[in-house]
């Protein structure tokens, strides 16, 4: 019942939170005049103090009422948890949708596996490219060598033709002229022995 002289106020939810440590626990804080009472429901079933798997602690201070529920076992996926504060002036409730710790564990395991897969995949791709680089360099060098050889092969006929042309255009060196007397000149020119005989006669 309300204390005389106090202004009545309906129940209002001031704060709520959930955290997972060793177990999952959720808290709700209500304010109202008179002081609200707090009730918990899992699904549609109200939580009683001695219910297996749940533990409820509540405190009140003036118009404030705080209540915390501890889940001693992991909830099933999709389980709804209802926190309700009520007094004669009104009721205020909050519904919390719970997820199974197993599903979150599966998700964490999947994410860890995905991260590891990406990491090892990146290492594998890096090693593959490191092994592939020497082959690419060797292939490029072979192509360049073939290209250079082809260019040399194209230039060699032109060089030979140029050398032949230069050789043919060079002036010939003048050789020593040799005059061979004709037979008539040999007959007409008297030899020294013939002239001596004519004088004796």
Q: What does this entry look like structurally?
A:
Mean pLDDT is 76; it is low at 194-201. This protein has helices spanning 101-169, 183-188, 192-200; strands spanning 9-20, 24-33, 37-42, 45-46, 54-61, 64-71, 80-87, 90-97. The chain is built from three helices and eight strands. The chain is rod-shaped. A hairpin with a 2-residue loop joins strand 5 and strand 6 (64-71). By secondary structure, it is an alpha+beta fold. It starts with 8 loop residues before the first strand and ends with a helix. The strands form two sheets. It has a four-stranded antiparallel β-sheet, with no helix packed on it. Strands 4-3-7-8 form a four-stranded antiparallel β-sheet, with no helix packed on it.
Q: Work out the number of β strands.
A: 8
The main β sheet shows up as: 4 strands, antiparallel
User: Which value, in Å, is the CA radius of gyration?
Assistant: 59 Å
Percent strand:
25-35%
Shape: rod-shaped
Distance between the termini: 196 Å
Strand arrangement, major sheet: 1-2-6-5
Fold blueprint:
Elements: E1 9-20, E2 24-33, E3 37-42, E4 45-46, E5 54-61, E6 64-71, E7 80-87, E8 90-97, H1 101-169, H2 183-188, H3 192-200
Antiparallel strand pairs: 1-2, 2-6, 3-4, 3-7, 5-6, 7-8
């Amino acid at each position: 019942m309300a204390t005389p002289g106090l202004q009545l106020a309906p129940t209002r939810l001031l704060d709520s939170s959930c955290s997972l440590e060793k177990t999952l626990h959720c808290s709700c804080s209500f304010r109202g005049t008179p002081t609200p009472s707090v009730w918990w429901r899992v699904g549609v079933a109200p939580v009683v103090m001695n219910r297996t798997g749940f533990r409820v602690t509540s405190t009140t201070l003036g118009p404030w009422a705080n209540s915390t529920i501890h889940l001693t076992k992991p909830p099933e996926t999709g389980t709804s948890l209802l926190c309700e504060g009520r007094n004669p002036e009104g009721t205020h409730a909050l519904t919390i949708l719970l997820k199974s710790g197993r599903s979150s564990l599966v998700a964490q395991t999947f994410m860890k596996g995905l991260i590891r897969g990406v990491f090892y995949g990146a290492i594998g791709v890096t090693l593959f490219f490191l092994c592939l680089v020497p082959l690419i360099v060797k292939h490029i060098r072979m192509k360049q060598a073939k290209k250079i050889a082809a260019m040399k092969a194209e230039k060699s006929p032109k060089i030979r033709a140029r050398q032949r042309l230069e050789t043919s255009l060079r002036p010939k060196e003048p050789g020593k002229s040799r005059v061979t007397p004709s037979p008539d000149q040999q007959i007409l020119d008297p030899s020294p022995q013939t002239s001596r005989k004519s004088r004796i006669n």
